[in-house]
Amino acid sequence: MARKANGSVKQQFKLVYVDEVKTAPKKGDYLASWGFRVGSPFEIKSGLGDGKYVDLVGNNMVLKTQNGRTSQQWYFNQKTKTI
């Protein structure tokens, strides 16, 4: 059953970049209108404050404790404007 967006903390996430930019971004590296750094991996952290991150397990997205695996790293595709 799909749930509607309600703005609660259970539906809020924060993007946490895996690495910090060490130099000023070059043109095209940061898409300000979308708020993403192109080609920089990030993790999606739950807004619940329980330290859970979005993880891809098979074809399912689940919340798990941060584990440093690539299944918890996401990228922004500038061409399709998707994660």
Keywords:
mainly beta, 0% helix, two-stranded antiparallel sheet, 83 residues
Task: Tell me the strand percentage band.
Answer: 25-35%
Number of domains: 1
Radius of gyration using CA atoms only: 14 Å
What is the terminal separation in angstroms? 24 Å
Structural shape: globular
Instruction: Characterize the biggest β-sheet.
Output: 2 strands, antiparallel
As residue ranges, the low-confidence spans are: none
Report mean pLDDT, rounded to a whole number. Answer: 79
The assigned structural class equals mainly beta
Our count of helices gives 0
| Beta strands, count | 6
Descriptive account of the structure:
By secondary structure, this protein is mainly beta. The protein has one domain (9-72). The protein contains no helices and 6 strands. It has strands spanning 13-17, 30-31, 36-37, 42-46, 52-57, 60-65. The strands form 3 sheets. A two-stranded antiparallel ribbon has the order 1-4. Strands 2-3 form a two-stranded antiparallel sheet. It has a two-stranded antiparallel ribbon with strand order 5-6. Strand 2 and strand 3 (36-37) form a beta hairpin. It is globular.
Layout: helices, strands, pairs:
Layout (H helix, E strand, L loop, with lengths): L12 E5 L12 E2 L4 E2 L4 E5 L5 E6 L2 E6 L18
Antiparallel strand pairs: 1-4, 2-3, 5-6
Task: Give a short overview.
With 83 residues, this protein is an all-beta fold. The mean pLDDT is 79. It is 0% helix and 31% strand.
